[in-house]
Write a structure and sequence with these properties.
By secondary structure, the chain is α/β, with parallel strands linked by helices. The chain contains eleven helices and eleven strands. Helices cover 42% and strands 22% of the residues. Strands 3, 4, 5, 6, 7, 8, 9, 10 and 11 form a nine-stranded mixed β-sheet that branches. A two-stranded antiparallel sheet has the order 1-2. Helix 1 crosses helix 3 and helix 1 packs across helix 4.
Amino acid sequence: MNINQEQLIIFKTVIETGSFSAAARQLGKVPSAVSMSIANLEIDLNLLLFHRGGREPVATTQALTLYEKTEQLLIEINQWKQHAFALSEGLESSLNIVVVSELLHVQWADYISLLEQQFPELQINIFSAPQEDALKMLMNQTAQLALMFEREQLESREQFVELKREALVAVTAIDSPLAQCEQVSYEQILQSRQIAIASRDRTLKPELLFSKKYWRTDNNHSACAMIMQGLGWGILPVEMLNQNPHIKQKLKILNFLDFSPKFEYFVDLVWSRESQLGAAACFLIQHIRNSRKNVK
């Protein structure tokens, strides 16, 4: 059986127009070419598609059944061709993006929508992970792009473009002992349990760690739940609290007495110099660079 796209288009058009001659006019063909194509299709399928006894051909029950699937099949063929063309132009077969756990509330989905509009056939996979694990995913090329906080020391393989500033705050439950203090000393923080967002690899020390005692979790939602339960203090994004007033009401932002840790960071889009980035990843990077220029 050797059925091609043109045969399917002719078959569909004959059904919709009701005659070989009308289909020929619509497709810019001679009626004999349409008639021959339908005859060959019937031979290939070993099915009678049209009764030809009257003035105009009448579709058989089998033809009407096949017609229901023809339009979707033609759409899928066109999508396949578009995807093949995009791949030939350098589009990656899929794009893996990892978003650092503390940044899940940031408007990163806007960038995904932009990619979907530009590359509708691209498969996009989104992962979330603590900062240390996100970096690992980039370096072992499990992910091609990462949305993560700036770091003081970069690996030589990293490259990045800045997105925005993001503020973090130290918080505790409103009924916890720390919450009763107008100002909290460094010694109090040192001795109080911290709920730290950290890699699942326990050999890696959490980046924003101040306390001697700490519990680990790999995302800010579970960290927030434990903090509200009074199990420890922790560091959460300001925007997360602003977006969730009911959470903000149950937490107190700590005011430090004798030290001022850095709680404001740039959010970066990061990639590895060793990765062979495809058209979609390159498009997003360039889009963000252009956006930054326009802001400046």
